[in-house]
Design brief:
Helix content: over 70%
InterPro entries: L-PG_synthase/AglD (IPR022791)
Keywords: Cell membrane, Membrane, Transmembrane, Transmembrane helix
Subcellular location: Cell membrane
Number of strands: 0
Radius of gyration: 21 Å
Largest sheet: none
Strand content: under 5%
Number of domains: 1
Pfam family, one: LPG_synthase_TM
Organism: Oryzihumus leptocrescens
Amino acid sequence: MALPRARLLGLMRLGIALVILAAVAWAVARNWTAVSADLGKVSGWALVVALLLAVVGPILTMLGWRVLMTDLGSPMHVAPAGGIFFIGQLGKYLPGSVWSVLAQAEMGTKLHIPRRRSAVVGLISIGLGVLTGLLVGVAALPLLLGTSGSGHVGWLVLALPLLVVACWPRVLNRLIALGLRLLRREPLEHELSGRAVLTSVVLFVGAWLCFGVHVWVLATSIGGATGPASLALASVAGYALAASLGMLAVIAPAGVGIREALLVLMLGQAMPTSAATAVVLLSRFIITAGDVLVAGGGWLYARSHHLLSAHPGHGAPAAPDPVTHEEGRP
């Protein structure tokens, strides 16, 4: 009996993700002696600072998501917004890019947020996340393509204006409308305001910078860089570019394997490959730990305030309607 198409695609994605993980594991194992020596060079303060930055990044992303949700008619307190966003985003560790959106949409119904609105905002957030990541990471494009230093200006001249225009509110609203038509979905109730778009873009850019600086902190602690400027470029812009391209690869959960391979390639031009590999391994662990911490914190805080209770009648006050509750407005 033939497998359903959806199940077959799911199995194919899982198989490809396992192949990617196996390739990364083999590359690490082949150079483990040098990599393990570099791992031992990382100081405790660098791990703490990197983890703090890995926690601030998702918080800024959540605030950007909340701005978009508010602009479309569902303002929320920070507590339930964090609970919905942080818990839902754990779905990104499953193959595919929609699990986090589906989880957020389902949890949002407990706060009277229409599933369609949550899904649209989730997809817009992913799209804006990729665009802003490319915006921050475009300076590292020559490192990825292996072009000479003189090619940096040319790539920036070509790519940077296009990314800036794509993030411009009027253009972005048209892109959103086109995407919804292609997906055969109803248009938004109204266009996103310029203020909401620009605010969320600034917050998303801030998140990318936090993630990039956490890589720089780890790389600086290990040492061996050819120059501080090249290391900063490869760490901050390189991480944003690698992670954004990883987000586009929906076959890999949370871009795992793809992000690591690309980041090692770019960091490897500013420091020894074994050191770059050690940085990337620590980065993946710290980013995952940060996701788990904010998800746990968001859940605990929201539950303690009875804002995400599915059955508020059990001795807890009913969760406020985020659309009408005045304190939920920014």
